[in-house]
Amino acid sequence: MKDKNSSVAGEYFSYFVPCVLMAIATQSASIIDKVFIGNFVNPVEMGAANACVPITQFVYTLSVLIGVGASAVISVLKGQKKEEDCNRVLGAAVLWSIFFGFLFLIFLIVCSDFVLAFLLKDKSIQELAKAYYLIFIFMVPFRLVSSVVQNISRADGFPKIGSVAVIVSNICNVFFNWLFMGPMEMGVRGASYGTLICFFVECVINLSYFLCKGRTFKLWFKGALAKTGSIFSMGLSACIGTGLIAFKLVILNNLAEKLNGESGLVVMAVCLSCLSLASMFSAGANNAMLPLAGKYFGSKDMENFKCVIKFSAITLFLFTTVVVILLEFFAGAFTHLHGVQNEVEVYLCVQSIRIYAVSLYGMCFTFFMIYLLPVIGKKLISTMMSICEGFAFIVPLCFVFSSFMGLKGIWVAFIVTEILTAGVYFEGNKISKKN
After folding, report:
1. Rounded to whole angstroms, how far apart are CA atoms 135 and 404?
2. How does residue 29 score in pLDDT terms, banded at 50, 70 and 90?
3. How many CB atoms lie within 10 A of CB 284?
4. Which of 60, 184, 197 is nearest to 138 (CA)?
5. Cα–Cα distance, 137 to 5 (Å, whole number)
6. How many Cβ atoms are within 10 Å of 318's Cβ, its own excluded?
7. How many C-beta neighbours within 10 Å does residue 412 have?
8. pLDDT at 416
9. Vertex 166 angle, CA 162 and 169, to 5°
10. DSSP state of 392
11. DSSP conformation letters of 128-183
12. CA angle, 411 as apex, 409 and 414 as ends, to 5°?
C-alpha cells in the first residue's frame, strides 16, 4: 500500500511542480504590470489599468470552458483507451479557441467606448485606461489558443511545455515592462506592449506541442465538432465560476470607485494581486489533480483516485496557509511594492488585505471542488457552487456590508460568501447521497 501511495504521490508531484511554476508565471504577469505601472507611472493609472482585468478574466473563462473541459474529457477517454475520440476532442478545442479568440477581439475593438464605460464610470479615468486597453486587447487570440493547447498538452503528459512557455514569456514581460516604461518612458502603454509580447511568446512555445514526436494525440478536424457538447458540458461549471468573477470584478470595481474614488480603485488593484498570489497554488494543485483524477476515475481505479485527491487537498491547504500568513504579516510591504505611498491609501490597502486574506481558504476549497465534481459526475453541485461563489452571494453581500462598513465591507463579504458556498457543497452532497 505504501509503495502504491508513493508511486501516485510521485506521479502527482511530477505534474504539480510544473503546474505551479506555470501558474506562478501566469498569475505574476498581472502583478508585474501593476508593480511597474504603480512605480514607474503612478498608482492611479495602476488602478485604471487594473479595470481591464475583467477582460483577462473573461478570456480565462473561455479557456476554462474549452481547455479545462477538453482536458477533462480527454483524461477520461484516455483512461478508457479511446484514442480516436481524444484526437477529435483536440481538434474541436483548437477550432473553438481560434473562433472565440478572434470573435471577442473584434467585439472589443468595435465596442471599445462601450466596454470602457462599462468598466469605469469616471470619464477621466476611462481616458487613462484607454491608452492601456487599445493595445492590451490584441493579446486575446494568443492568450486563448495558448491556454487551450496548454491544458491539452498537460493531459497528454507534457506539462513542462506549458511551464517553459509561461516562465519564458514572463521573463519577456519583466524585461519589456522595464524597457518600455523605464528607458523608453512610454508610460502605461509600455505595460500593454510588454503584456502583448508576453502572451505572443507564450502562444508560440505552447504550439510547439504539435511538433513533439512522442505526443499521443493527433489533430483531427473530421468529426471534431461532434465533441463540442461533451467539452462544454465538462467545462461548464468551472467556466461559470470564472465567468461570473469577470462580472463580479466590474461591479466591485465600480462599487470601490463609488465609495472611495481613485483610492478605491488603487485598493482593488492591490487586493486583486493577493488573489493572483493565492491562485498560483490553487491553479497549480487543481491543474495537476485534474488529468490524474480523470484518468483513474475513467479506468475505475478508485484507490489511486483517492490518493490523488488526498495529495492535492493537503498540498493546497499547506500552500494556502503560507500565502495567508505572508499577507497577514507583510500587508504593508505588499502595498508599498505596488508603489502606493499615500498614507490613507496605504492604510486602506493594509486593512483590506488582512481581511480579504482570510477568505482565501474558502476560495481555494471552492475551486478545488468545482474542478473535481464534474469528473465524478456531480456537475450540478459544482455549477451551483460556481454561481453562488461567483455572483449570487458575493455581489448582494458586498452592497449590504459596504452600506454600513464602507470599503471594508467588501472584504468582509468575501469571507461570508465562502462560508455560505461551503454550505452549498455540503448540503448538495448530502442530498445527492440520499438520492
Report:
1. 39
2. low
3. 26
4. 197
5. 45
6. 11
7. 19
8. 94
9. 135
10. I
11. HHHHHHHHHGGGHHHHHHHHHHHHHHHHTT-HHHHHHHHHHHHHHHHHHHHHHHTT
12. 110
How do residues 74-119 score in pLDDT, each as one tens digit? 777 776 777 777 788 888 888 888 999 999 999 999 988 888 888 8
* pLDDT tens digits, 40-54: 777 777 777 777 777
Q: How far is the C-alpha of 315 from the C-alpha of 309, rounded, in Å?
A: 10
Cβ neighbours, 10 Å, residue 253: 23
pLDDT per residue as tens digits for the range 149-179 = 887 887 777 777 877 887 888 888 888 888 9
166 Cβ neighbours under 8 A, 6+ residues apart: 21, 22, 25, 26, 202
Cell numbers placing 103: 470573435
Answer whether 305's CB lies under 8 Å from 375's CB.
no
Which residue has 481524444 as its cell numbers? 86
Place of cell 484526437: 87
- SS3 assignment, position 184: coil
DSSP per residue, 49-99: HHTTHHHHHHHHHHHIIIIIHHHHHHHHHHHTT-HHHHHHHHHHHHHHHHH
Q: Is residue 8 within 8 Å of residue 310, measured between CB atoms?
A: no
Q: Report the distance separating Cα 70 and Cα 292, nearest Å.
A: 14
On whether the CB atoms of residues 66 and 99 are closer than 8 A, the answer is no
**201 burial class (0-12, 13-18, 19+ CB within 10 angstroms)?**
buried
274 to 83, 291, 327, 359: CA distances (angstroms) = 41, 27, 8, 11
Which residue do the cell numbers 470552458 mark?
A: 65
- Size of the chain in residues: 435
Rounded CA-CA distance 258/407 in Å is 10
How far apart are the C-alpha atoms of 278 and 262, rounded to whole Å? 25
Residue found by looking up cell 505596488 in the block: 338
